[in-house]
């Protein structure tokens, strides 16, 4: 994919080195499709090659009244995508490992300006990939994976316990309650809560402090490299385990029930039935090499 192919994000570069990615799909509340993720990756590659691109701010379009409502998949729309672009997408990478690792390894600072609801990947991506996160005072986060009978993506099965400890992380993931911006700040998951109409101006000031002439960009990149390098293999393995678990959970009766309940606007009634492959993972050590050899969508 080339920069001129971008349709689901708006990518802007300024002379001072501040770059902005705006998720621009308001009709679906800025939900991420596989195309959105590929477009973000394309912008990141462009920043890597541009010596004048120093810092990235990621936000959602104001028209969508959301940062992002999470993942989105429409097979009909996928069929309309040019074959050469389809070839760049891995539909089996449900945990979005490729983009997550690309952002994890990206040396330049990333700031997330969460200007509305952030559900699913809308919050897991910033937590895994943004160096600084600021939320509007009327924004909120939703780790709603449990409501769909699935597991998190973007390495948050490791990121959340790292940031919060096991008890808080499990509480958030096991119950999937809506978390307002102030609570996110109290938990230490974000850097600040800013009045909505001041959010982008605040993030721009923060960005200016990270780049010349105010900030020594080289030392900041080195700091990020050192901190991220230690956890790189853990993140990579966590994403592999999330991908395996997502493939399995998407085949369960509980997942099907959650989608049916969502359509019918009611609470899901889960049964918790475990198939053989899930039992093999639950009651034995999680051996990645063994799991990689299994058929990916065996019932």
Describe this structure in words.
With 299 residues, the chain is α/β, with parallel strands linked by helices. The protein has one domain (3-218): Alpha-Beta Complex (2-enoyl-CoA Hydratase, Chain A, domain 1). The chain is built from 13 helices and ten strands. The chain has helices spanning 34-49, 75-79, 83-86, 97-105, 121-129, 156-164, 166-175, 181-186, 199-209, 217-249, 253-264, 276-282, 288-292; strands spanning 9-13, 18-23, 55-60, 66-68, 110-114, 117-119, 132-136, 140-142, 178-180, 192-194. The strands form two sheets. Strands 1-2-3-5-7-10 form a six-stranded mixed beta sheet, with helices on both faces. Strands 4-6-8-9 form a four-stranded mixed beta sheet. Helix 4 packs antiparallel against helix 10 (217-249) and helix 6 packs across helix 7. It starts with 8 loop residues before the first strand and ends in a 7-residue tail after the last helix. 39% of the residues are buried. The model has no long low-confidence stretch (mean pLDDT 92).
